[in-house]
Design brief:
The protein is mostly helical. The chain has 2 domains: 37 residues; 107 residues, Cytochrome c-like domain (Cytochrome Bc1 Complex, Chain D, domain 2, Orthogonal Bundle), CATH 1.10.760.10. 52% of the residues lie in helices and 3% in strands. It has 5 helices and 2 strands; from the N terminus they run ααββααα. A two-stranded antiparallel ribbon has the order 1-2. α2 packs across α5 and α4 packs across α5. The protein is elongated and about 75 Å long. The mean pLDDT is 90.
Length: 147
């Protein structure tokens, strides 16, 4: 049988142990994001501007990116890969830009994306943002190329 003193020591010792585990895992998570998951070395002004366009146009209200956002429209964390960006980066860029310029498609019965009337530079920056997102180590997310 434990005494009050022993119970108190178990409580404080256990609390301290799990706080140390919690802080250790928090530090590891931050280290992993900075050093492994996100490739900060390839961040450019174009990528930052593309992300700003993503935020300003509220794309997350319809799309997901790396699993975060709405599920009304396709996942865009791997859109660069779906457009063939790994094998033909310039072709993927042109395909992406053409897709964006031709919205809405007007296909009956399909969800329609609005026309944002992006400039060529904005489309290039958005493409650079999606190219950069495709280099993030997502531990296998999304589970398939279709998003």
């Amino acid at each position: 049988m434990h005494t009050k003193s022993a119970a108190r020591n178990i409580f404080y010792g256990g609390s301290a142990f799990f706080l140390l585990i919690f802080f250790g895992l928090t530090i590891h998570s931050h280290w992993y994001i900075v050093n492994v998951s996100t490739n900060e070395k390839t961040l450019t002004e174009a990528v930052a501007h593309g992300k700003k366009l993503w935020e300003d146009k509220s794309c997350v209200n319809c799309h997901t990116i790396l699993g975060e956002g709405a599920y009304f429209a396709p996942e865009l964390g791997n859109v660069w890969v779906r457009y063939g960006g790994k094998d033909d980066p310039e072709g993927a860029r042109e395909t992406f830009k053409a897709w964006m310029k031709n919205q809405p498609t007007g296909v009956e019965g399909r969800r329609q994306m609005p026309q944002f009337n992006f400039t060529e530079k904005e489309l290039d920056d958005l493409a650079d943002f999606f190219k950069w997102v495709s280099t993030i180590d997502t531990n296998g997310w999304p589970p398939n190329d279709a998003g």
